[in-house]
Amino acid sequence: MILSLIVNSVIFVYKKINYLFSIPYRVGHRFKSFFNETNSVLRESLLGLLICAIGGLCAGLILGKMEYFLTAFPGLLVIIPGAIGMRGNIFGALGSRLGSNLHIGLLSPEFKRSKILSENILSSLILTLVLSMLLGFIAKIICVIFGFESISLVDFILISIFAGLISSVIMLPVTMLISLKSYENGWDPDNISTPIIAAFGDLFTLPSIILSTIIISVISSTILKYIIFIFFITISLLSLYYGIKSGGEMKKILKQSTPVLLLCSFLGIVAGGFLNSSIETLLKNPSLLTLVPLFSGESGNLVSILGARLSSALHSGLISSALRPEKATLRNFSIIIFLAIIIYPIIGLLAELSSVILHMDGLGYLSIVGISTISGLILIAIMLLIVFLISAFSYRKNLNPDNIVIPVSTSITDSLSSLILVSVTIFILEFLIF
To answer: Does any domain span residue 280?
Structure first.
């Protein structure tokens, strides 16, 4: 019995030691299998995110230099996250719909006139008009509720509409070109189109807002300003009525997207409210102001990639709408986490590096990389669950996930990103001071 006990003990210890020594091999094998299976996805997504980082950096630098406009037009910061988010929501959803139609063969990657393409284009323009009007209205209400000093309601709405129209002139052809040509060249639009579309949205939204404020400043006549205001309100409402009454795909897009994007606009304005409440901290640390569009944009892109991939997988039958994540869903989660670990330190470095190059006050590389990475990982951990649940519930309710998932998830991301980024920043700055 004693001999048997000793032998069994030795065998038990041997097995445990052998298991411990096999862990590095098993982990390495798992990583190798993961990279082999997702190599093209990671490569395409990372390329799109890096391109988006350039757009976000440009937007951040512009925002960092917008002190004059933020002072001359009080409350303008409230509308900025909502405007950036709305551009990404409308045209990101357009890119996602085009990607899904390409995947299932309803749309050709060639630039040919088709009913599906025409209805998607017109729907995006109508949504831009209507949502820009509502965005200005909500921004003014938030300023009144929280007691922020702000410009008039008319100025808010006109700035928002002008900015929407100016940026749409660029965003519409860019979205179609990226979606169709990426598919034609063998790339998956779900991996690359949404981040690049968002990059262009980040890049052109702030200049369009600046140009809009200049236009408003030039219109010195109050009567003329009110005439333009009434004209755009009328056009927006009539275009929405026409789109809904026209039927077909356009009616479906507008009926599903308008309430969703209205909620998204509200969430974007809430994000702007968070930023406006901390405007003194942001203006004292220009590198943080530069980081805001970068962080929000890259977070939205990571979430959009996940949302677009889950939407296409649901359409294609690769995953079901079960509320328990399946193997394919968990693989997509792993892809997003891996990309997040890479991209958040990079955008922190970019924000601080741009401050050093432009001789602006910075927080230091260690601090800002820590703020970006910690905030990003907290945010992504929350958003993985939210995106999955939105995708599953929308598909279960016979709603097109392309119209629901990306707009809602990116808007929630905008709000949470501002809240988490500001909270982590204050905590780290106080900790460093202490």
So the answer is: yes
DSSP 98-131: HHHHHHTTSS-SS----HHHHHHHHHHHHHHHHH
Domain range for 159: 39-433
Residue 14 inside a domain? The answer is no
Number of domains in the chain: 1
Q: For each successive 10 residues of the chain (434 residues), what is the average pLDDT? A: 63 57 52 57 71 72 72 82 76 75 67 74 87 89 85 90 88 80 66 68 81 87 89 90 81 80 77 72 69 80 80 70 71 86 88 75 79 91 87 75 70 80 79 53
- The span from the CA of 59 to the CA of 428, in Å, is 25
The single-letter code of the amino acid at 431 is F
Q: Rounded to whole angstroms, how far apart are CA atoms 424 and 202? A: 23
Backbone angles phi, psi at 359, to 5 degrees: 60, 40
The answer as to whether 22 is a domain residue is: no
Does 28 reside within a domain? no
Structure tokens at 294: 């970068």
Neighbouring CB atoms inside 10 A of 23's CB total 9
Return the HEC string of 184-249: HCCCCHHHHHHHHHHHHHHHHHHHHHHHHHHHHHHCCCHHHHHHHHHHHHHHHHHHHHHHHHHCHH
